[in-house]
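Attaching the record inline, Q. Sequence:
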Amino acid sequence: MRTESLRVGEFTLRSHQACGIDDLRDALRRGASKVVLQGPCGVGKTIIATALIHLARKKNKTILVLTDSRQLVYQMVDKLDRCEIPSATLMAGEDYWHSGVTVATKQTLFSRCFQKKTVPLPRADIVIVDEAHKSLSGEWATILREYLSAVQIGLTATPEDIGSWWEEIVVAGTYAQLIPEYLVPARVWVPWEVDMRGVSTSNGDYAAGDAERRHNRPSLVGDVFSNWKRIAGDRKTVVFASGVTHSIRLCQVFNDNGIPAAHVDASTPQECTKSQVGRAKIFEQLRTGEIQVICNVGVCRVGWDAPWVEAGVLAFSTKSLVQYVQTTGRLFRTHEKKVDSILIDHGGNVARHGWPTDDHVYQLNAVEPIERREREAREDADPRESHCPQCSYVWLTGRRGECPMCGHHETRPGWPRLIVDANLREVVRKPKIHRTEVQKAWDQCLGIAANVKHGSAKMAHGIFRQKMGSRVPPDIHNYLSYQANRQEEQDIFRKYRRGKMRWS
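Structure, as predicted:
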């Protein structure tokens, strides 16, 4: 039975969502038990998860939804409530009871069920893992190994290098399918590339401290504001900074120039406290127009649903395709009178990874679990000392915040600012050329060969013949001879490296 026109509560599945569920069920019928459902930000993965839960509950299946963000838990519970599907929430600060559907944060479940053992592990025939690209870390792996007899479904826009656990990828939609009906197109402005030579790397990306210092130069900060004012000065905007002090400094620049702005980072509480405005209120202020700009570090990158945002500023550089796709994906949801979204890139990220609404071919490569690398990085880092100016209490902490002794909250200063003029230019994209099925198949073969170790022209030809049952036609675009030498291979393969423009 196909799931076309399925209605769950107030939601009716769109065609791409229904097709994604059908393809997922087909994969499970073929014997896969750990399947990733992939689609760009805005494809409606939470709605798809709600529909899957609805179908599973009709068969009396028990379901566990796992995420690592309180924000994502609230989004999931809201959708379930609107569809009249009862659920329990396993999360700090929430009352928990046994239910056929449990929505949990990974942190609380691991603490209560594995460390403290105050709560029995929730029963589940189906485990849904939100933001599954994070699922190789130690705590995730410990939890998921307890559910080997259950069907495991991962949801993510970027299933990159997670093949050591997940078995198959099912695509629930692409940017090409969703724009312009369900997502808006991108307009992109780029400046010079920030010179990142000599900046150290960690875990495949630029080291946070070095990157922040490189981006925190006064000329760049000044340029962020002046270009935003010229390009997107009338739009609600989210600014992605390279570090906390960088974000605070950018926020100061906007406020000093009469643009109401707020800063959020990992230490910003969800709800308001006596000394701090909470995230929920800041996001609501942006929605209502009380503020126009949010400067943030990490908070708005994953699971943040704000369709009224019309512009984004990348004031950082990243080598990570996953981080780039997750960050830019916040901008393209539709909203009333919203016809496009502006991306202002100060870090050379578009040149490095491609157009923000490009569709990427992801592969489930098996890599070293990230938790081991993260733990080693934490062990190598020196603990930082915090000092309370109110009561003189000293403690070791990873970030500043409220004093554990007297509760005093210290305001963190940003670095001094200096505004310097510099103009960015808009990049106009050439219209796409229509590709035949044969051309698409050859592009896929080149993509595979270009992104694996020791990939070659012979490999691409072999995959094409196995896929299409015929030889590669010599008049095809980007044709590569079976006997091509290494230089000829590299000239073609560089166009198909992951994150680059696919058609050139």
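DSSP finds 16 helices and 20 strands in the chain. The mean pLDDT is 84.

More tomorrow.
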